[in-house]
Amino acid sequence: MNTTDVAVEGSIFHLPFLATFPSPAIREYIRIFALGLILSLFRDSIAAIRERILSIFFLTASFREDTVAYSWMMVWLSQQPTWRNARRVEVTTRDLLSVGIKSVWDHSRKEDSSSDKMWRRMTFLPSLGFSHMMWYHRHLVLVYREKENIQSEFTQSQIETLTIRIFTFDHAILSTLLQQAKNTFDAVHSQATSVFIYDTMPMGRWKQLGSFQRRPFDSLILEPGVKESVVEDARDFLNSRDWYHRRGIPFRRGYLLYGAPGSGKSSLIQCVAGELGLDVYIISIKKERLDDSGLMQLMGELPERCIAIMEDIDVAFKQELTREAGDGEGKSENDGKAQAPVVAIGPPKDGSVTLSGLLNAIDGVGAQEGRILFATTNKYLALDPALCRPGRMDRHIEFKHASRYQARELFRTFYAPGDDAPMNPNGSLMHDFKTSDSKHEVSDLASQFADAVPDESFSMASLQGYLMMYKTSHQEAATNIADWVVKETEAQAKKSGKI
Ligand SMILES: Nc1ncnc2c1ncn2[C@@H]1O[C@H](COP(=O)(O)OP(=O)(O)OP(=O)(O)O)[C@@H](O)[C@H]1O
């Protein structure tokens, strides 16, 4: 018997059949392989036993990154004091917008109170790949975050899963925790509108892009009653589900906002979203790799109460028209009453969404109920009649360049007395806006400003741009507007080749 045979037979891992192999090296390989196999089976059994024990004593809930409940839980976790003292923790000063976490303002560092450092923002989260313990209503809770690889046809990416285990036999505690997490999330987001985009990669899903502060309703200046009527119409729609169902009418509503660029179309959508507390889902029809079925899928995956936006809906199909053709100041091509659309629509140039695909996605069988669709265009006449008909676009709202009324109200809102008036470095208001004298003064200057602006000749965006040059001096803004109008009119004439 040679030394190798002794080693095999004398080891704690004795396999008699190995003696049939003449080569000692092969015997050694087989022995190591078998040992590894047994260890891995042993490890799996231990994990299965551990899992079994945990599932007996703990209530387990998993949340995938692409679900709303995951965002609730992450926001709630980020607000738990436990992580501030944890020995292993993820600290970030960024907003984790994909899950809707806004970093919290840390007021605790009083020594920095004179400087911006007081406002250092931090979010504490349980770190990835590590099991954390915390207490919830006197129950032990285990928190585990892990990333899982997802392979698609084109790419490989990762998706996170959060697992919560609660030491309890009572299911109600999970419901309480979820409700509390949702309330926390809602409270954090009550002043903000969440924005979602469709992520076609690695697999189609709506993904939160971020959130923006609700736009104050008063900051949008349209002709009297216009914005109020849109909000009321949308509110009425949301409350009329049964009415629609009883009459067999699909429970969807569409608004087509058309007209001059920079006149408040996107701003109106922001205001409606803020007033009705709805999230916004942006649909880019021109997105790469989006075809008819992809569009249908993303429309079908919209949540029930939301605002879906399709901006520049004309650009998706009209190859010969470009946005620049009507972007200049001065009267827009859409001024005046809306006429019947006359231009035929050609095949798509870049994207692969077709007109019939779009029409189906808007009101086909798979289209989501309860959603509000806002489509915008600067080329109203270029749209196909089928796209504009009631049922797809129920209300058409025209936007023109600023009227005198709008110019005056813009000025008044811009220099409105209030807490958000421009501040001096020492914290005092730049103007004494709080006195009624200054209110009257702003009113008078607003009229002077509006008188100098020709009716429906300049976009609200350009007037706003002008006022931005005089953020701190309303008198100068009112005095210099006449010169600005002359210069701008000349510039427009040059641009359009009139001089
Ligand atoms: N009616 C308005 N009232 C107040 N501000 C306005 C108004 N119209 C435009 N603005 C301001 O001008 C800027 C552009 O507005 P907005 O994006 O809403 O215009 P739009 O009509 O959607 O433009 P576009 O067609 O080019 O996308 C914003 O900063 C907005 O605050």
Automatic annotation (TrEMBL):
Residues 33-220 form the BCS1 N-terminal domain. It is found in: Mitochondrion inner membrane. GO terms for cellular component: mitochondrial inner membrane. It holds the Pfam family BCS1_N. Residues 251-403 form the AAA+ ATPase domain. It catalyses: ATP + H2O = ADP + phosphate + H(+). One of its GO terms (molecular function) is ATP hydrolysis activity. Gene3D superfamilies: P-loop containing nucleotide triphosphate hydrolases. The keyword Transferase does not apply. Keywords: ATP-binding, Hydrolase, Membrane, Mitochondrion, Mitochondrion inner membrane, Nucleotide-binding, Transmembrane, Transmembrane helix. Belongs to the AAA ATPase family. BCS1 subfamily. This is p-loop containing nucleoside triphosphate hydrolase protein. It comes from Gloeophyllum trabeum (strain ATCC 11539 / FP-39264 / Madison 617) (Brown rot fungus).
